[in-house]
Amino acid sequence: MPNNTTTTEVAQKLLIIEDEGEMCLLINLLLDGRKMEVEHVKTIADAVEYFQQKTPSVVLLDNRLPDGYGLDFIGYINDNSPETRIIMISGMDAAAKDVALENGADIFLEKPFTRTQLCQAINDLMEAEIFPC
What we know:
The protein is of the alpha/beta class.
């Protein structure tokens, strides 16, 4: 049977790099059924492996991960997947926001963030209304 899927029908990919299971579940529930394929990894090592196989449109990147800091991983993403947009998520202070944006993150969302803030950030980066806010 031929594959009739066109490029425009393929869902955008969103990768969540977050080690807290509850946070991932919450984000998945917020984004479920939308025009994006959502995947999740818990460590930087798993994220590197993911990037070797796939290119997400957007990454939600936590800062404190079991094997390093998301702030340090921003450069890897920008070097290896420059088309990928980065939303840094962290409960840290304004200094982390400044460093994240200086390192190349597109948007910084402070935890806890609202569904509206998350949806608006993704819509802004994708330049389309993928999620109704």
